[in-house]
Each structure stands twice: as structure tokens, then as C-alpha cells.
Amino acid sequence: MDERSDFDPSQDPQVNRIISKLAYSSSPPEDDAEVASLFPGFRFDVRLVAGITPIEKDGPLDFFVDRPNGMRGWIVNLTVDGTGQVFDGDTGFTVGPGDLLMFPPEARHFYGRAEGSQKWWHRWIYFQPRAFWKPWLDWSTQVDGVHLLRHRDEGKFSEIFRLFVGVDRWSHRDDALSLDLAFNRLEHILLSCARLDRDARNSPEVVDERVLAACTLISQDLARPIGVREVADHVCLSPSRLSSLFRKFMGVGVVQWRDAQRVQYAMQMLRISNVPIKSLSQMVGYDDPLYFSRVFSRHTGMSPRHFRERHTEILPTLQTEMAATDVSGLPPSLAE
């Protein structure tokens, strides 16, 4: 990745492809995830989804997204071109090129093209955080629960833009290593943002080492039937003290976090393999497939079988599109 910061967002081949698709469709195509994810009703039921929303004045995407109860996962958003409006009334604010937004689970979503602007193009990533990301997910500026990070450094803008493109590119492939590459670039984005925010407030939060050790113990063997007491013994804490610290630094209880990690891994395996669901339930620590299905449904809103069926239908379409896409996925001025 070089350090050139000059690029023309209007030359992004992905944007031009999406605009062309929208020009020939009067409604969102359900079998085209690249376009369907830009409209209300799309089910963000995977561990990571990325894309770009090129809103043009009076175009088919020129509406305000309104999710009063937010979403199950997180969304990080980078404005690429134009101006966006977030919220209205006294809490309303606008974002321009280089500004980043981060929506935690259940935070209200209300945003669209700002009045007076001809466009608002923004790249976005929907994700479920990994174990140790929590300290990076707490920017100092928040409005109604939505995190905001402003900067006008062209070099940093170019770097983060490329990382967003990289996440989008790798997340559309169906093998485990590509998904790991997508998460690698997402981690780079979140670390870069956390560093920018830290420099602005100079007060980084450090997660308690015993909580990190507990996370490591759980995540290194998800098939292991482990409870709070065993984890607490491992890190030399009482179960109640561990539970208190865990909620403070991770935002959820030990068992809830363990189940979330298991479900995330199960989602990945359902997406990229044909392992039987009964075997998968044992791989992630549940001897009873019915109980595994209940836990999975509680986290994703659907059964493991339904989840697999949806992604069996979607993946061939994504693979075909990737084959027709420029290998870099970058605007020409960035791909050279």
C-alpha cells in the first residue's frame, strides 16, 4: 500500500457497477447481495458484510435509513464523497469525506443524504467483534449512542479507504482464509481509528489482563464444556468477581460472550463448509443439537439450517460477480 492520497471516488468501478444495476431495476433484486444490502429488509445475519452505498439526489437510494432499535451487530461507516445527515433536530449533525461513524448494537440508525448535497457515498462494514476489540470500540465523541470520528488528513483518509475496499473484496469470498484477511483489514481500521481517537483524548483504556486471559482460555477451544467457575479458577478470581470484571470490560457476561464466540464460529463453518449440523454443534461445545439451534437462533434470528440455506443461495451469485470485478476492487488512481 503506497502513500498516495489523490484519488477520484467517482471512478470507483464498484460504484459505477451499482449505479448501472440500479438504473435497470425498479426494485431491489433479492438475489444480488451487493445491491439488496443497500435497501431496507436485508438480513444482516452473517459475521461480516461490507459494501458501498452511493446515494445520488433523487436516485433509488435517496431515502433515510430509520432503524429505531438499531441492529444486532456493529456498523462502521466511512464517508467517501458528498455529505450525509445523521439524526435530526437538536442532535442532528452532518458528515463529510474522511469522517467515520460507528453504530453499536441497538443504537438508533437515522441517516441519509444531507439536504443541499448532490450525493452521499459511504462505505460500510457490518461485523460481530472479536474477543479483544472492545477497547477499540469506544470513541470519545458520541451523539445519541453513535460514535463519531472526524479527521481531514488526506493520507489517513486514503489508507482507511483502501482498508475498507480490502474488507469488501475479501468478505465476498467463501473460504476461511479470505474471511480472515477481511477481519485482518477490519482490525487495522479499528486500531487506526482507536489510535486517532487516543491521540485526540490521550486516555486509552486497558482491559484487565485477567479478563484477557479468560477470553483466551474460552476461545482457544470452543468445543470444551467450560463454565464460569472453571474460568474463574484459571485466572485466580472468584466467579462473582470475574463476572463483574467481564461485564465491565467486555459489556456482556462470561457465558453470553462464550456463546457469542461459538455462534460466530458456527456461522463461519455453515457459510464455507458442508459439515452436518449435529457434528457442528459438538464442534462448538453443544452435545444437544436442539439446544445449539436455540442458542444459534437467539443470536442470529434463524436456525442453523435456515442460515446455511440462505448462504448456499447467495454465494454463487457473489462468486460470479467477483470474477467479473477488477482484481483490486480499487479506483484506477489507487490500483496503479
From TrEMBL:
Keyword check for Ligase: no
Any GO MF annotation of the entry: sequence-specific DNA binding
Parts of the chain that traverse the membrane: none
Domain annotation HTH araC/xylS-type: ranges: 212-310
Keyword presence, Cell membrane: no
Signal peptide boundaries: none
Keywords: Activator, Cytoplasm, DNA-binding, Transcription, Transcription regulation
PROSITE patterns membership: HTH_ARAC_FAMILY_1 (PS00041), HTH_ARAC_FAMILY_2 (PS01124)
Record protein name field: AraC family transcriptional regulator
Native source species: Aliiruegeria haliotis
